[in-house]
Amino acid sequence: MSILAPLQWGAVCIKNPLCKYAAKFYIFGMDKFIDAHCHYNRLNFVGYAGPGAFVCNAACEDDWASLLAASHCNKRIYAAIGVHPWHVCAAAPGWNGRMRENLNMNPGAMVGEIGLDRTHPDFDRQMSAFVAQMEIAAELNRPAQIHCVHAWDTLLRLLKTGPHPKHVVIHRFAAAPEIIRALIEIFGDGVWFSYRAPMRERALRAVAATPERQILVETDGNAPAPDNIRDAMVQIAACLNAAPDYIADITYNNTLRMVNNGQIE
Ligand SMILES: [Zn+2]
């Protein structure tokens, strides 16, 4: 994509002490990447001149407008708007109607971050907000970015019985391979699993069980962080016994397919 500035990483030392591959040197030509799930903080993104593109999520209504505006000015920012399970209690009445309106006015925008989180209160309201947002995503044919913590049974039940779009990203994924299989039964190749460094054993087991075309990389941060994306690619490459530049390539193409709603550009 011409909008992405080329980057030569050259010889790269992975210095992150949390990364189990810390001592090794990797050389790979990662000249492009897309962070498949992060959050928009204006101060961190304005003036950023480095490489990459970013799927930024606005997790509560207060954040929608600035992210949507930023995505118009900066073609390297892909916007997703929604109400995160941590914010459903504070959502102002009528938020879902306004969300639909905003998505209608922004045909390139996605839905996110939405989901279910058993470690946070008001699970019933979380469920109804999730279903309402999946209905909007299905109706407007937008990919949805999903957060799920200790709620896989409920999530799978709601996805099987309720509305959902054709394409979803399960972000910061680290669940069991059975969950991957169950989601693929529902979505086929329309579900992507997004991984963030540093990955521990559970996440690496999930990486090994994920079809290559459905692997994404993310930071879940609120600032551009190419080093963190590179760490994720290096860990995935080691886990799959593949070259890091091969992983850079497939995760880039996978993310493009996701933001283009399942279509390769
Ligand atoms: Zn997030």
Summarize this structure briefly:
The chain has 265 residues and is an alpha/beta fold. It has helices spanning 42-45, 61-73, 95-105, 123-140, 152-161, 177-187, 201-209, 226-240, 244-259, and strands at residues 11-13, 25-27, 34-39, 53-58, 77-81, 110-117, 144-149, 168-170, 191-196, 215-218.
CATH architecture label: Alpha-Beta Barrel
Q: Please estimate the helix content.
A: 40-55%
Low-confidence stretches: 1-27
Along the chain, the helix and strand elements come as EEEHEHEHEHEHEHEHEHH
Q: What is the averaged pLDDT score?
A: 89
Give the terminus-to-terminus CA distance: 9 Å
Instruction: Give the radius of gyration.
Output: 18 Å
Largest sheet: 8 strands, parallel
The overall strand count is 10
Instruction: State the CATH class.
Output: Alpha Beta
Question: What report would you give on this structure?
Answer:
The structure is a single chain. This protein is an alpha/beta fold. The chain has one domain: TIM Barrel. Helix content is 40%, strand content 19%. It has 9 helices and 10 strands. The strands form 2 sheets. It has an 8-stranded parallel beta sheet with strand order 3-4-5-6-7-8-9-10, with helices on both faces. A two-stranded antiparallel sheet has the order 1-2. α7 links the parallel β9 and β10. α8 packs across α9. The longest helix is centred in the middle third of the chain and has 18 residues. The termini are close together. The N terminus is likely disordered. Bound molecules: zinc ion. The site of zinc ion has 6 residues, from β3.
